[in-house]
Design goal:
This protein is an alpha/beta fold. The chain folds into 3 domains: about 100 residues, Gyrase A, domain 2; about 150 residues, Four Helix Bundle (Hemerythrin (Met), subunit A), CATH 1.20.120; about 140 residues, Rossmann fold (3-Layer(aba) Sandwich). About 45% of the residues lie in helices and about 15% in strands. It has a 6-stranded mixed sheet with strand order 3-4-5-2-1-6, with helices on one face. A 5-stranded mixed sheet has the order 8-9-7-10-11, sandwiched between helices. β10, α11 and β11 form a beta-alpha-beta unit. α6 runs antiparallel to α8 and α8 runs antiparallel to α13. The protein starts with a strand and ends in a 6-residue tail after the last helix. Bound molecules: guanosine-5'-diphosphate (GDP) and magnesium ion (MG). Magnesium ion binds next to α9.
Length: about 450
């Protein structure tokens, strides 16, 4: 194991800048740089000396001997003054003394390999640092403290115990009929299913808090899409004019609704056009729509299209993308929400009851926000969401699929060998979440996405 070093504070100027050193040479580096190794875990005021014995800076040094440190190895922290030149000089000095600059995420990677944190916890470190809202930070903290990992592990244990039963049935085939019918096994199956539901739900919430929802505002030219984006963003992000076809580029804004991060995309109005630039805008709009989590389809209430033409507009959207329909320009219509026009045939599934808003006055926007949260399945202040990533949700889904196949095989009295194999695969999928089962490739991708010094 070599010794690594990196600034632990962000680049720039600040009151304090920290260089962290980790590895077998940390104590020797401390001795050369400070003149002595600080007492373990004691803040020690010291000069930081260069090779000639001249001070580079003076500050606080902290020494955490392994194995009771974050990474499990000896760690030295140098708290100097937070200026880029001081940090550079300190880094150069510790490298001169035998450390090498750390790769992104390398400290946390070492903590993982030392068994100090599992993979889900290591990811939670990065998620906490990158949290975009208080809710996301709380969820990351829950994962970091191991709540998510404990749930996954207890699920894995339950699957293992079921495996033991099935393996026993393989070894003692004469008793299989009684084994299958036993209330014990039925109880275990139901228990595991309930756990999958709970963990899957909490992880999906956590993923939502971390990654947010990609909402694309679509509709005909002049429906008020750009006006709505500006309203939601609270500033004039997009150009709004009376001229249809004003928006040509795809515009993105990050908006927060009660902690739910929304990535809202404004697009060119959908229509046939001979204008080359606008045509490219429409092409891009369609590409955005195809990969949206939700399309917010804006219709101009003053234009009141026929039910058939509105249906045709909605059906022209790519199949499978969820759509929320909103009628805009309510301010130009009297008592618009109560109008029979929005009931009956026009009350499409894309918005029932009709969602009527005004991008100009802000009318109906609270309702719009509520519907967006509802469509995302977001539970505000939802209890016990842990920060989770798409990777976790996907692995949970795979584990669940294997488990369900095993359950159905048991019901159909398939061969126990096949059942055992499904359970084993499900168990492995769960292990990917905490890193009990992992590939170098996966680890490289995860830790490589960290910031340097973490
Ligand atoms: N009265 C009224 N006018 C609106 C509303 N929303 C947009 N407009 C107007 O409709 C026109 C087109 O708006 P814009 O946001 O550019 O539509 P887009 O083409 O869908 O992006 C502009 O003149 C806006 O001022 C609304 O809620 N009420
Ligand atoms: Mg526009």
């Amino acid at each position: 194991m070599d010794t690594i070093a990196a600034p632990a504070t962000p680049p720039g100027r600040g009151g304090i800048g920290i260089v962290r050193v980790c590895g077998p040479r940390a104590a020797a580096i401390a001795a050369a740089l400070l003149g002595r190794v600080p007492n373990p875990r004691r803040a020690t005021l010291s000069a930081f000396l260069d090779a000639a014995g001249e001070p580079i800076d003076a500050g606080i040094a902290l020494f955490f001997p392994g194995p009771a440190s974050f990474t499990g190895e000896d760690v030295l922290e140098l708290h100097g003054h937070g200026g880029p030149v001081v940090m550079q000089l300190l880094m150069a000095r510790v490298v001169e003394l035998g450390a090498r600059p750390a790769r992104p995420g390398e400290f946390t990677e070492r903590a993982f390999f030392a068994g100090k944190v599992d993979l889900a916890q290591a990811e939670a470190v990065a998620d906490l640092i990158e949290a975009g809202s208080a809710q996301a930070a709380r969820a990351a903290m829950r994962s970091l403290q191991g709540e998510f990992s404990r749930e996954v592990e207890s699920l894995a244990t339950a699957v293992t115990e079921l495996r033991v039963y099935v393996e026993a049935a393989i070894d003692f085939p004469d008793e299989d009929v009684e084994f299958l019918g036993s209330a014990e096994v039925a109880g275990r199956l139901a228990d595991i299913e309930g756990r999958f539901d709970r963990v899957g739900h909490a992880a999906a919430q956590g993923r939502l808090l971390r990654d947010g929802l990609h909402v694309v505002i679509a509709g005909k030219p002049n429906a008020g899409k750009s006006s709505l984006l500006n309203r939601l963003a609270g500033h004039e992000a997009a150009i709004v004019t009376e001229t249809p076809g004003t928006t040509r580029d795809v515009l993105r804004e990050r908006i927060d609704i009660d902690g739910l991060p929304l990535h809202v995309v404004d697009t060119a109005g959908l229509r046939e056009t001979d204008d080359v630039v606008e045509g490219e805008g429409v092409r891009r709009a369609r590409a955005e729509i195809a990969r949206a989590d939700l399309v917010l389809y804006l219709a101009d209430a003053t234009q009141a299209p026929s039910p058939a033409s509105l249906r045709a507009e909605l059906e022209a959207l790519p199949a499978g993308v969820p759509v929320l329909l909103a009628w805009n320009k309510a301010d130009l219509m009297e008592g618009v929400a109560g109008q029979s026009y929005f009931k009956g045939e026009n009350a499409t599934a894309a918005s029932s009851p009709a969602l009527v808003i005004s991008a100009r006055t802000g009318f109906g926007l609270d309702e719009l926000r509520a519907r967006l949260k509802e469509r995302a399945g977001y539970e505000q202040g939802g209890t016990g969401a842990f920060s989770a990533r798409a990777r976790h949700v996907e692995a949970l889904g795979r584990a669940r699929a294997h488990f369900e196949r095993a359950r159905d095989m048991l019901a159909a009295r398939s061969s126990f060998e096949l059942v055992a194999e499904e359970l084993r695969l499900g168990h492995d999928a769960l292990g990917e979440i905490t890193g009990a089962v992992s590939s170098d490739d996966l680890l490289g991708r995860i830790f490589g996405s960290f910031c340097i010094g973490k």
